[in-house]
Amino acid sequence: MSELRFPDPPLADAVVLLRPWAELDVPAALIARSDASVDRFQWPHDARYTEADARQFFIEQEQARLRGEELHFAFVTPASPSEVLGGGSLYAVDPRHGRAAVGYWLAPQARGHGIATHAVRLLARHAFEKLEIARLELTCAPDNLASQRVAERCGFTREGVLRSHIPYKGGRRDTVIYSLLAGELAAP
Questions:
Q1: Domains located in the chain, CATH noted
Q2: Can you say whether residue 160 is alpha, beta or left, with left for phi > 0 and alpha for psi between -120 and 50 degrees?
């Protein structure tokens, strides 16, 4: 599989710009990951997220991009591209089977402004149009209602619950699975 390239020009609309993560983003990622909600839904370990974790994540995401498996983005406002509002990714990219998954999180100050919905639409459009994906999946915790609302606003269909799906904080967690097929992306 060949490496994935970041879109040029970057994915953006009037609300959000998606750009590659940079070394200077480590403090913002660390602060956001220390938020109780982000920690609850995004960080699968019992131990706290550290600066070393953030730096290792940046290394791993670049390796995954070079393998053609993942593209990770910082969400920023178009007017202030250094202010990180959250992050998201296209991951589990499988061109052979025409599938990928999308994930996202927001810092507390960015919630409730439509940023995740706009970002997911941009990621989905990119997956369908540029990566030629036929099916995009989105998973989240059953109690992550905000994430489920984002999925539904973007046109995803809830398919069900994957029981005891992933290891999570010393146990296992169920996961709600949604899918979006090419042509189903809901308009803004």
A1: 11-134 (3.40.630.30)
A2: left
